[in-house]
Structure formats: C-alpha cells, structure tokens
C-alpha cells in the first residue's frame, strides 16, 4: 500500500502506570513513534527477536485519523477521527531501559498488533468510557478503563496536531494502564515463546497474538 501511516504513541498516560513505573506523572503528553513496519494483524504472531531478553505487552486504545488535520482544537478533534481499534504496544524492556528512550525497544517488526477492525467513531460516542484489558494465556494482567487516561483522546489529537500534520490512516496509541509484565510483583511476568497475548477493548474486540521465535 502507498499509505504508510505514522504510529504516534503516548507514554505514561495512565496515572497508575506512571506510578508502577516510578515515573513522574507528566504535565503534558509524552510523544514517541513506532514505524509502520511494526504493524501486524490482530491474529498474527509476535516475533521474539534474539537480542531481546525482556518482552512485554501494553494494552492500548488506538485512534485512527480520518481526515488531514493540523492545529485543531480538542472540540474539533472528533471531526477528524475515523474510528478506534485495539492496540498492543509490544516492548523490549531491556533495550528500552538501556537506551533510556523508547524508539529501538518498541520498533521491531510485529511490535504493533492492531485491530481486529476499526470501529467507526459514531459507534463509540465516548472514547473515555471503555474497559481495556490484557490477558496472557488466559490470565488477566491489565483491567482498567479509558476514563483513567491522564490526557483524553480529543486532547491528544489536538496536542499532536500542534506538532505535526495528521493524515488519514495515521494511528495514535493512547497509552497503557497498570499491569504490564515488567512491573509485576513479586517478580516480573514477561512474555515467553508460545505465550498467547490478548488485548481487549470494550465495543471493539480482541487481539490474539502468539509469541514466536524471531527471524532475527
């Protein structure tokens, strides 16, 4: 396809996740990017690369842009949203923490499962009231609600549009709640080969991806 969407991700956008990360709650959204080559299907495998030793999941609500926009106000944002999907911000924690920034550890091929479809915005009148969950091999790991976001969907569209032009097909991954594997107590619960990871967002559906040995 000629359309190679930007994947714009928001870090630390749930207070409980910031707290479990021992990070300060941000006073404005933290933006980072994933390449379009990280995108993969809702039932396709997640590849576990050989240089990764700490593979983790992050359940997120994804916003899909429907119309080109730049410099929009939060109240205008819904007009530029096509719809919503579930998203897994797969993360290599050993590289993320080593690099002290997030690009390499979150950019591997298959590290952005998304789907299982795009639910149009008219079917989700309030994106700030959706249950969001993750499960690994059937065990619930994350169980929250998008109302717990620090910065809401419409604010994020506006904020990002002040920085860059948003184009049709671009994806905004809006952050993850508490319960990621690396911060599990008493010890981390990280992903292993053959694990089945599910991300579920209310009114949207479930991603179900199996972890396999990476090609690299």
Please, could you describe this protein's structure?
- This protein has 216 residues and is mostly beta strands.
- Helix content is 10%, strand content 34%.
- The chain has three helices and 14 strands.
- The protein has helices spanning 15-20, 93-99, 153-161; strands spanning 7-11, 30-34, 39-40, 46-48, 55-56, 59-65, 81-88, 91-92, 112-120, 131-136, 139-145, 171-173, 196-201, 205-213.
- The strands form three sheets. Strands 2-1-12-6-7-9-3 form a seven-stranded mixed sheet, covered by helices on one side.
- Strand 10 and strand 11 (139-145) form a beta hairpin.
- The protein is globular.
- The mean pLDDT is 96.
